[in-house]
């Protein structure tokens, strides 16, 4: 049985048809890049295992982290149906990955031929755009503190594990990595996390954050309680 066939039974129903369009599986090592901003875009990727980070370089040489993608997530999708497409973001491998490669031209052809595939892909794209819109809304409207607080909420929705004393974000993060998600500086994140620790809203142990009072953080930014599928870091 092929690698693609082996994986097909493990992915969600929404992505089964998409995986049928993949023509190969590649393995990528931690620290390498799947693609870089500005490169010619000819492939779409479906993460089968491992994690990648999608980010955007800023004019001042810093990085804005947009998504952490893991199993069953698609990357490279924003370049479909454009002339001479180029990747809009960087995609860096955070953990050794196994990735299904889908040729863009072949996928576009199958989207026109296969209504099931077209419907599922459009549904996935709609959800993805809504996630992106809510993230940029938070960054623009809520300021530095709001950006951090909304990032923490998204982290709990994606990686939260319930413990006796709160919700553990089961993803090790440095303050610089958090700052990259918030479009702010490490020093600002240091101060804001310190304030939350003093108030016993959170605690941090070896890079892992536990949120003891998620309600406080949600109230501070007047959280709209969006469904977790849209309010996530993925």
From TrEMBL:
Keyword Kinase: no
Pfam family name, one: cNMP_binding
Domain of life (superkingdom): Bacteria
Sorted UniProt keywords: Activator, DNA-binding, Transcription, Transcription regulation
Annotated SMART domains: cNMP, HTH_CRP
Presence of the UniProt keyword Transferase in the record: no
Organism: Fredinandcohnia salidurans
Ranges of residues in domain HTH crp-type: 142-215
SUPFAM superfamilies: cAMP-binding domain-like (SSF51206), Winged helix' DNA-binding domain (SSF46785)
Name the UniProt record assigns to this protein: Crp/Fnr family transcriptional regulator
InterPro entries referenced in this protein's UniProt entry, alphabetically: cNMP-bd_dom (IPR000595), cNMP-bd_dom_sf (IPR018490), Env_Response_Regulators (IPR050397), HTH_CRP (IPR012318), RmlC-like_jellyroll (IPR014710), Tscrpt_reg_HTH_Crp-type_CS (IPR018335), WH-like_DNA-bd_sf (IPR036388), WH_DNA-bd_sf (IPR036390)
Every Cyclic nucleotide-binding domain range: 6-86
């Amino acid at each position: 049985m092929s690698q693609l066939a082996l994986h097909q039974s493990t992915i969600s129903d929404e992505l089964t048809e998409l995986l049928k369009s993949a023509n190969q599986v590649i393995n990528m090592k931690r620290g390498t890049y799947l693609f870089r901003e500005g490169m010619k875009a000819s492939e779409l990727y479906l993460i089968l295992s491992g994690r990648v980070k999608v980010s955007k370089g800023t004019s001042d040489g810093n990085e804005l982290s947009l998504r952490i993608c893991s199993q069953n997530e698609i990357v490279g999708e924003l370049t479909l149906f454009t002339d001479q497409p180029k990747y809009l973001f960087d995609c860096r491998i955070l953990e050794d990955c196994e990735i299904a490669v889908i040729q863009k031209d072949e996928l576009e052809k199958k989207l026109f031929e296969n209504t099931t595939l077209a419907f599922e892909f459009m549904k996935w794209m709609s959800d993805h755009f809504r996630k992106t819109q809510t993230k940029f809304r938070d960054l623009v409207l809520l300021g530095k503190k709001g950006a951090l607080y909304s990032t923490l909420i998204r982290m709990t929705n994606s990686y939260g594990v319930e413990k006796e004393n709160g919700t553990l974000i089961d993803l090790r993060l440095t303050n610089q990595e958090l700052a990259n998600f918030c479009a702010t500086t490490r020093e600002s994140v240091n101060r804001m996390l310190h304030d939350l620790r003093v108030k016993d809203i959170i605690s941090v142990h070896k890079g892992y954050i536990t949120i003891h009072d998620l309600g406080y953080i949600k109230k501070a930014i007047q959280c709209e309680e969006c469904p977790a599928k849209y309010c996530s870091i993925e």
